Amino acid sequence: MSELVFFSGTMDCGKSTLALQIEHNRSARGLQGMIFTRNDRAGQGKLSSRLGLVTDAVEAPDAFDFYAYLVDRLSSGLRCDYVIADEAQFFTPAQIDQLARVVDDLELDVFAFGITTDFRSKLFPGSQRLVELADRVEVLQVEALCWCGARATHNARTVGGRMVVEGAQVVVGDVNGYDEDVVGYEVLCRRHHRRRMTAASARAAVLSPDVLPVDQPVTPGP
Ligand SMILES: Nc1ncnc2c1ncn2[C@@H]1O[C@H](COP(=O)(O)OP(=O)(O)O)[C@@H](O)[C@H]1O
Ligand SMILES: Cc1cn([C@H]2C[C@H](O)[C@@H](COP(=O)(O)O)O2)c(=O)[nH]c1=O
User: Fold this and answer.
1) Dihedral (Cα; 190, 195, 198, 203), 10-degree rounding
2) Pair (179, 93) in one structural domain
């Protein structure tokens, strides 16, 4: 029975690496998949991992119809045995419905990879639809860590290393961006996401004689 599987986690937890491994293992056994993505950091039509691997993919903007594309492909005699969809948080809910239809009507496995929540810890619409429709949601086993050593569960957006909470939901970027005026991201545990405490601000707090140590209880925020 074909499945829609949503592999989810924070940024930098190995989702794209796993996508490339699934692709490698299946193509090594003679299967032929289609790889889709949206807004990869490596550029349009690429699926890239921080481990240095990159492969070509079909870019899927809002107007792209996964179901129609695959029906077209199969009816013109081309092959597709499974589907990989990276950066799935950026797909529209309608596109996630198309992927579910690919599983049910075309009987193809669909492996979708993406972050569930944005920098404000709100669900991306595409990820919400995946949670609603997927046969399975798999949380990646390699834990990304907060600077405090706890499991990172949240994505913070940073500018100059400081967490920001205003801005567009979609801003393509990478972790470890500490430059002033450059949007970057940092993964944090919930406690430090709620307190807006990134590695840089924790370091600054420790160095300042005016503030309490980071892990002392503080008045809860709004
Ligand atoms: N230099 C490195 N050596 C070993 N592992 C690394 C290195 N750089 C990145 N990684 C691994 O790659 C992971 C990020 O993989 P990637 O597939 O790009 O993540 P995601 O798609 O979830 O954002 C990191 O969590 C880490 O486990
Ligand atoms: C939290 C958050 C992230 N993004 C962007 C930043 C990256 O380009 C991707 C995530 O890619 P990864 O392979 O999982 O690291 O999403 C965004 O646009 N908005 C956000 O709130």
Assistant:
1) -130
2) no
Provide the ipTM.
Answer: 0.98
Ligand nearest to the backbone CA of 115 = 2
**What is the structure's pLDDT at 217?**
46
Could you tell me if the CB of 11 is within 6 A of ligand 1? Answer: yes
Q: For the chain, how many residues are written?
A: 222
Q: Distance between CA atoms of 84 and 64, rounded to whole angstroms?
A: 15
185 annotated as ligand-binding: yes
Q: Domain total for the chain?
A: 2
Closest atom of ligand 2 to 9 CA is: 14
Q: Are 81 and 108 in contact (CB under 8 A)?
A: yes
Q: Which of 123, 139, 155 is the endpoint of a domain?
A: 139
Candidate from 155, 163, 164, 186 with most ligand 2 atoms within 8 A of CB, to mutate? 155
Of ligand 1's listed atoms, the one at least distance from the Cα of 144 is 25
Same domain for 39 and 63, yes or no, is yes
| Whether 118 and 212 share a structural domain | no
pLDDT digits (tens, 9 = 90+) for 95-152: 999 999 999 999 999 999 999 999 999 999 999 999 999 999 999 988 899 999 999 9
Determine what percent of the chain falls in helix, strand and coil, rounding each to the nearest 5: 30, 25, 45
pTM for this model (two decimals): 0.93
Binding site membership of 144 for ligand 1 (Cβ less than 6 Å): yes
Q: What is the CATH number of the domain that holds 83?
A: 3.40.50.300
Residue nearest to atom 9 of ligand 2 (CA): 172
Chain segment 55-86, per-residue pLDDT in tens: 999 999 999 999 999 999 999 999 999 999 99
